[in-house]
Amino acid sequence: MKTLLAAALIVLACPPKADAARLERGPYLENMDKDMVTVRFRVDTASPAWISYGAAPDCERFLTPVAAVKEHKVTLFGLLPDTTHCYRLYLPADESAGVYKAFEGNFSTFRDETKPSFSFLAFGDSGSGTGEQRELAAQMDKFKPDFVLHTGDVLSDGLDADADNQYFKPYANLLSRAPFFLALGNHDYGREVKTPAGKGFLKENFTPFHSVPLTGLPPHYYFFDEAGARFFVLDSNAFSGAKFAPDLAPGSKQYKWLDYFLSKSADKNWRFVVLHQPLYSTGAHPADEALVKALEPLFLKYKVDLVLQGHDHDYERTLPIKEGLPDEASGIIYLTLGGGGNQLYIQRRNEDWSAKFLPVYHFAFFDIKDKYLKMSVYNKAGEEVDTLEMQK
Known about the structure:
Blueprint: H1 2-8, E1 23-30, E2 37-55, E3 62-76, E4 84-92, E5 99-108, E6 117-123, H2 131-140, E7 147-150, H3 163-168, H4 172-175, E8 180-182, H5 201-205, E9 222-226, E10 229-233, H6 253-263, E11 270-274, H7 289-301, E12 306-309, E13 315-318, E14 321-322, E15 325-326, E16 333-337, E17 354-358, E18 362-369, E19 372-379, E20 384-391
Parallel strand pairs: 6-7, 7-8, 10-11, 11-12, 12-16
Antiparallel strand pairs: 1-2, 2-3, 2-4, 4-5, 6-18, 9-10, 13-16, 13-17, 14-15, 18-19, 19-20
């Protein structure tokens, strides 16, 4: 096998010429598991591509040819769990025969439940293209998470035409080595989110460019597992009037899905929920009573550990809450992580359950070692502004 690969890659030393195919976007990683990952990228003209990969440092153990298109989506199967892999992306060097190495990088596959330690970054409401977003992205790039969670509003108006400036370029380094798991926000549905004109918007601007686990209704809701933890990513936009968002009220398909798979997660060390609209917040968007009434009983019933939410452009950590009151014994902590780059919000009301509110650009880093969790929140200067520790 290696001899054949070496023969196939002899021409790969050719430098790119002026008319060579060029990367326009990516590569970026999505939809990772312990034995697979999806690699996506865009080139400036429809052209074939080749990806070689293997357990580091053997980057050319396997070779995958890709058809001649502009928008490439390649899923690598049969990977080793909890292993650092290296990969190389090759593109045609000119219109004749040669090819060149357009990218080389690394990623690490997820762990199974026998190795219950992992880390991740979380943030949201970033689609802005502002200097503050880029400063925050530069701080995030200093970390080496296993994956990244986004609480929604990836783009300001949901348009793929803005995606490079507002998403793919600011996080380019991070995207190439850690998979992002995205929750949909109201802005990701476009300006016509509440009208019939919004029909098909996601299919044109989001779905063709993103891959999520096929465990729910992609791209709206899904779950994934990592090292003894389960993450539920929901689409709560129907509660804020999104006409084509799936219902999440009791009895709906999404609600029944959530109820069923939460009930099947009792064996997990940790259960996290990610959604855009907040259940509890003292920022600009007060909690929707219907949203709280629908979801809080499920979260309490199945002992969800943390709820990560966005929509409000600020950072907020609640005390453990149960039915609107602080409850250290059986309540749930809600984290608003919405300071990813858009204009910040001030606090609008005082609540006994609000433990920390900061109108700052920020992201959170979670480090989990078996049944111990530590969260550190950082601002755009890289300063730690809040922490949380949990022991189960």
